[in-house]
Amino acid sequence: CDSLLIMNLAFAKSTKWWEKGLQPNMREIESAQDLVDSLANAGDRLVVVDFFSPGCGGCRALHPKICQFAEQNPDVLFLQVNYEEHKSMCYSLHVHVLPFFRFYRGAQGRLCSFSCTNATIKKFRDALAKHNPDRCSIGPTRGLEESELLALAANKDLEFTYTKQPEPVPSGDREVIAPGSPRLPPPAKPLVRQGSGERTLVSSGR
């Protein structure tokens, strides 16, 4: 009886639709920290974050297509976020419609976000075609917006901490003039000249 129960549990576990057809470049996110780290470590790779729910019919119907896209685009990283297990995190990230997708890449950070179904799969295909070509971005990988990181850190349900990055301090007080922009004369400073017992103001502007 026990072995039958174990077999049934194993079978139930193996039949989760969101685990079927997974490609090597697809994985499920475990926590807010995992999502932040995965985006930060992706470098210049295009990352697609797929927000889904086990009870969402549209998500289930779309899943085989997403697996197909992952197989056709092995350089793209697909991250799955289970809404039922990470409701609080999804709320902080303003994800309220499923299925929902966000595309990220390198220093550009978030490229686009949208909801789509099998009927509107062209939206996903177009976004993949637009953002997938190899690009080299200058600067550190951005990942989530700072406002999103702060929202995750403020969420008491999540074990996630984030310290706001200090604003860069400009070096020196040198004036920067754009090429081709007209130079204006410095503002006139009044000079005081002393004459025979009286003072007159004379402008230095010529």
UniProtKB/TrEMBL annotation:
Output this protein's name: Thioredoxin domain-containing protein
Q: Report the domain of life of the source organism.
A: Eukaryota
Q: Which PANTHER family match?
A: THIOREDOXIN, MITOCHONDRIAL, THIOREDOXIN-LIKE 1-1, CHLOROPLASTIC
User: Which CDD domains has this protein been placed in?
Assistant: TRX_family
Tell me which UniProt keywords the record has, alphabetically: Disulfide bond, Electron transport, Redox-active center, Transport
* Protein function: Probable thiol-disulfide oxidoreductase that may participate in various redox reactions.
GO BP term, pick one: cell redox homeostasis
Tell me the segments the record calls region Disordered.
Answer: 162-206
